[in-house]
Amino acid sequence: MKITTDNLVGTWYKGTDSSCASYYPDKVILGAGGIYQAPRGPETGSIWHGGDWELDANLMLVIQASNDAMLHYRIVAFADEKLTLEDEFDCRIIYKNKP
Amino acid sequence: MTHLNEIPNLPETIEIENSSIDTTVVLPTPDIPILRPPFRVKSLKHGCYFLQWQPSNGSTRFNGTMRVERHDGGTTASGDLYQHSPFKVIASPSFRFVPNPDPSPSAGIPIFTRGRYRYYLRVTDILENFTIANSFTMKFERHLFDSSNNTWTNEGVFSANMVFKPTPSHYPSGATFLEGDLISPSGTGVGKITMGWVSKFLRKATLEIDRVAASESPDDNGSGIDWNDVFKPLGWDVNVIKSDADLSEPSGQSWSNAEMHAAMLDNRDSHNLDSEWRYYLICVRKLDSTSRGIMFDAFGGDSNNIPREGAGISSHWTIPNADPWGTVKGQRFGAADAPYFRTAVHELGHALGLYHNTADNGFMNTTGTIADNPGVFPSNIQWSFNSPDAKRLRHMPDPWVRPGMIPFGQAYNAAPISPTDMMDMQGALALKVESLLPQTPIGAPVRVKVILTNNSDVALEVPDGIALKSEHVIGCVRDPAGTARTFQSVFRCVEEHSHRILKPGQSMSDDLTLLRGNDGALFPSSGLHVVEVDVVWEMDSMPVSVSAKTAVMITPAIDDSHAQAAIKTLTTPDLLLTLAIGGDHITEGKEALETAMQDKILAPHYAVTTAKNVGRRFGKRKADIKAALLACSHKAVMSTSEARSIATIAKDLDVETLKKVDKQLATTLKSAADGDKIVADIVKKIIG
């Protein structure tokens, strides 16, 4: 699927249980207006709580972290209803568009 | 003699400024004399108290603070205790030890050394309003802090009959002072506790603001709200110091987190976090890692491993000249007083341990979200912290909020916090906890049934489930020595909590299978244990809780085989996951389960878990329903919920096959879930 902002908009459910991915929330909602939510992020100590997001010119997902840093994620794969991200520490996090 | 028509009307509320007032009560009948001496009405002053606990075993005392917040709903209180060091080291004129006195109450809110922190006191009972007695009962859960992993252990409920005493010297004028004997959860006296009022504030801190010359200092929102207006309603006494106004830019106008951290270390006026809660805000033109602001002293940005000391904001980010940026679109950020000041408060909020909160447009929501929300930005900014965040700032443990202790990013629910006044639903709603068995062998899970009944005349909103997976259920197990081990759901629910209506007289029940909790095995020893269960939810946005407990006897190992199997089940953390979700991939849990099944004492207690694992498909392995039913056909121990699960697995078998199943299973299922339709149907087919 083509990586576009419109195609990323929606609700994503974490589909990986690797230890590095435990810092990411179970559910993230990427809104159409560049705002995202991660319900229960603060209760579960995740790195995403809610804030700004965008797809930058290099097709990297840029997302506001819990301390307001804008973190960049490489989109490794985006197909078959799965979104695979990779952070700066090479941690891969898979999100699916179904629970 | 005063007559009825001369008695003044009492006010709606009584404002008590002092800890006691003299009130002469006149009864409305001329025949009854005026009572002497006058009654005294006592209350607790709002504010911070110097707290001291002197253990009865003669060991060193503990000093700390108790925060008493008086609000519309009553009183919320919380406390922290630090172990007092009888000596301190001074270096000048020579290096030596000198006696370390207690803090002076006249100096206000005391600050203690971080490394001496020991306990959080989660106050569950305190004087809510007034009393005409000279004492009241205070109760608190004492949570022991483990600094090696930043966790707390609930040691149980301590209580003290706190007596109002004459205030000793060195306390501020009008201070309240109380003293009581502290009683442990096991009923033993463990020393004396005192608390004396020292300040109308709950906490105090210093904020130092440094900036580069080109950046503005965020002093207020441009409409009269400044730092004092932000923090005074929270009960925080924040001293704002505008210090360096000409910082050098290390590498151009944009700063990295590391550069801001280095500037903080080089330029801040002082940094003894053991004598002051000092936060640092640096104002620069631009930030490398974000647009508006960042709490850089977190994660990889905390280069000295002393977290949450500082934050930075940028003055030269340009607000996009487009919607939804309202009346400030296109402006330079530092010139837009309202959002600039808001961002400064927001970043300080992170340094205080707060996370983003999108419940309203308060300080911990993000700027972009507020701009996107209804209303015209920035006039739609809410100039306060929202209620849960305000409560966190007042009542979360010291290590969470003060700089230099717990790192940013830990889950909120990892730390205890005092309850706000919870609606006491005991009476209207009754919770009962019953153990399935009168005794359970060591190494086996303990099964309890939880029953919630609406005893009132009205329909009440309750959680839609009270199993552990519902997340409304928490609890603890107290062993024969009184040690408390807590438990809660292993699941992290991704959906919103839902409720159901319980009609008058109606009950709901569910089963808990208890094996491990936050602190490991819940029943690691034999003897009489007490299982305490709390069901917590919100009704009309008010927190509600009901509690109950039951006793459980754990019997010791009867032979070597049982002992070995019990060791395996008690020391394999993944066995809990196998119990909860099953699956062949949890290899250590599966191995522990197999060990338990090989022991004749433990096998009946793990038979259902085995049956559920085998009876469900996993990956390429097909479900083996016959093997599942065989596993639990020999007097398996099972709860009602488990019987229902087994019946659900069995319903895929044809009638002929079911008739061949051991009839003992039918007896076990019927005994566990008599009246359940799914179970009754399977029982009927097995019996034939």
Please provide a written account of the structure.
The complex is a heterodimer of chains A (99) and B (688). With 99 residues, chain A is mainly β. In chain A, 8% of the residues lie in helices and 43% in strands. Chain A is built from two helices and eight strands. An eight-stranded antiparallel β-barrel of chain A has the order 1-2-3-4-5-6-7-8. In chain A, a hairpin with a 5-residue loop joins strand 5 and strand 6. The longest helix of chain A is centred in the N-terminal third of the chain and has 4 residues. Chain A is globular. Chain B is an alpha+beta fold and 688 residues long. In chain B, 20% of the residues lie in helices and 31% in strands. In chain B, the strands form nine sheets. Chain B has an eight-stranded antiparallel barrel with strand order 3-4-5-8-9-10-11-12. The chains are: A mainly beta (99), B alpha+beta (688).
Summarize, please.
The complex is a heterodimer of chains A (99) and B (688). Helix content of chain A is 8%, strand content 43%.
Strand line-up of the largest beta sheet of chain B: 3-4-5-8-9-10-11-12
Give the proportion of residues in helices of chain A. Answer: under 10%
Number of helices of chain A: 2
Oligomer type? heterodimer
The proportion of strand residues of chain A reads: 35-45%
Separation of the first and last Cα atoms of chain A: 20 Å
Give the H and E element order of chain A. Answer: HEEEHEEEEE
Q: How many distinct beta strands of chain B?
A: 32
The largest interface is: A-B, 27 and 36 residues
The largest sheet of chain A, given as strand count, sense and whether it forms a barrel, is: 8 strands, antiparallel, barrel
Gap from first CA to last CA of chain B: 89 Å
What is the overall shape of chain B? globular
| Unreliable spans of chain A | none
Task: Tell me how many strands of chain A there are.
Answer: 8
**Residue runs with pLDDT of under 50 for 5 or more positions of chain B:** 1-37
